[in-house]
Amino acid sequence: MKRRDFLLGGLGVTAGIATVTSGSFAMGQMMSGGNDAYRPPLSLQDYALPALDEGTSIQGKQVFKLTLQAGESQLLPGLSTETIGINQNFLAPVLRFKKDQTVRMEVSNRLNETAALHWHGMILPATQDGGPHQAIKSGDDWVAEWKVINEPATYFYHSHTHNHTGEQVWRGLAGQMQIIDEDRDAELGIPHQYGVDDYPVIITDRAFDKSGALYYSNTRMQKMQGMQGNVILVNGVADSVLKPKKSLVRLRLHNASNARFYDLHFSDNRPFQLVATDGGMLEQPQTLNRIRLTPAERADIIVDLSDGKPVSLQNRKGYGNLNTGMMSNGALDTNFDIFHIEPSQAEKVPAFTTAQLIRLPNWFNAQGFNVDIATTRHLQLDMQMGPAMMFGSGGFFINEKAYELNTINEVAKANTYEVWELRNPSITHHPIHIHNTQFRIIDRNGRIPSAAESGLKDTVIVHSEETVRVLLPTGPYKDADNPYMYHCHIIEHEDAGMMGQFTVT
């Protein structure tokens, strides 16, 4: 299908919404000390439904066999790109399992390099977390096993290799995980049939040279804004069209980009229902017509397509580090399409009308905390400025310290609650991810967050000159020797030092 045909089918409203162009991106790369990026004309492609892996039941455990492998993928028309992936050449299958199952991840590293595989958002023993301390050498195997105590939601798994997370994720070492409860979803009227009315929307951006090779820069200036590209992929495919089987769909929006922020809306500004964020359901659906996702954040939304009209999910320019501080880059900060939906053949089903989803834990309210607070931690997000910023190799800190593999920065007590105060005096925004917990946001600069941020989270954006407080449970697992991470999820910032470690005792 040609883009023109799709637009004539009913998306004239997208006139003036420009896709990022090769020329503008080249300008941005020149500003960052890189080479010109290539973007050939793209024709519309079918939506790519990722392979689904539900594991194999063996002796009471759900066993997943995951191979880290290298290969070639056609990400641009007529060109071959060297990539890496999990059980495939680029990206990974969607892993699906249930709360209270014991899962066993049998990981084989068949890459010619060391890698680590992290289960983002999971509450689990530190030795199973898949951080930089669980490195898997080339040719080696590693097993992670834990009982699933997280709530049903959309999660993430990806490389977490010491000093190489950014480029390994960029090359493809990442995928989506889902903890599901189909019975509960059916009772609530929430779409839950994979590939029928429940669709992953894994959003990434990439840059290429004219040979089709992935372009990745680790210059100091590139690290400042994080690696961002001029080709937008959904589930590994550019400019795709979803033809849903039903008129009510759940889209599991997932920002799997290294550094790009998204301000998402539909081309006709239609409303949708936000039902879940990183770690689970909200108490009530929130009716929105736009949603912002920073790197690693997820959001489950329900969209009514019963009018049968084609529509595009789009990004609105103006949000993220491409327009803040000294690294402002209008060449890359543009409006563009994410993907398209053509629902004319979808089966008509009843609208979503549920008003109450779940009850969240009553940890705090406007009057104060309903749980005992073990401690309050203060974390400041710092960036080195001046000549050292331009020519140094690191320059990103938390509490004035860069990440060190053998340094424990914080020690928490198991089965307690803590307040973490995250302060960002730097010139750019930082999405902060904390391992082994699902927390809730208390306030932003003293103000209660919106209802859309009221649910369980594992990643929170801390804007420039903002202080965010979160309330987090430390989890049940004790280990005085093996740490968990907390870090900026602009992955180039993480690799450059904006990361710390904590143990739970």
Short descriptors:
Immunoglobulin-like; 7 helices; seven-stranded mixed sheet; six-stranded mixed sheet; mainly beta; 505 residues; 9% helix
Question: How does this structure look, described?
Answer:
The chain is mainly beta. The chain folds into three domains: 3-44 and 187-341, Sandwich (Immunoglobulin-like); 46-179, Sandwich (Immunoglobulin-like), CATH 2.60.40.420; 364-504, Cupredoxins -  blue copper proteins (Immunoglobulin-like, Sandwich), CATH 2.60.40.420. It has seven helices and 35 strands. The strands form seven sheets. Strands 14-13-12-16-21-18-19 form a seven-stranded mixed sheet, with no helix packed on it. Strand 13 and strand 14 (237-238) form a beta hairpin. It starts with a helix and ends with a strand. Residues 12-35 have low confidence and may be disordered.
Question: What's the structural blueprint in terms of helices and strands?
Answer:
Layout: H1 3-8, H2 22-31, E1 45-46, E2 52-53, E3 56-58, E4 61-76, E5 79-86, E6 94-97, E7 102-109, E8 117-120, E9 141-147, E10 153-159, H3 165-171, E11 174-179, H4 182-188, E12 198-206, H5 220-225, E13 231-234, E14 237-238, E15 240-242, E16 248-255, E17 262-266, E18 272-277, E19 280-288, E20 291-293, E21 298-304, E22 311-315, E23 336-341, E24 364-365, E25 368-369, E26 373-383, H6 387-391, E27 396-398, E28 410-412, E29 417-424, E30 430-434, E31 440-444, E32 459-462, E33 466-473, E34 479-488, H7 491-495, E35 499-504
Parallel strand pairs: 1-15, 2-6, 4-7, 6-11, 12-16, 15-23, 26-29, 28-35
Antiparallel strand pairs: 3-4, 4-5, 7-9, 8-10, 10-11, 12-13, 13-14, 16-21, 17-20, 17-22, 18-19, 18-21, 22-23, 24-25, 26-27, 29-33, 30-32, 30-34, 31-33, 34-35
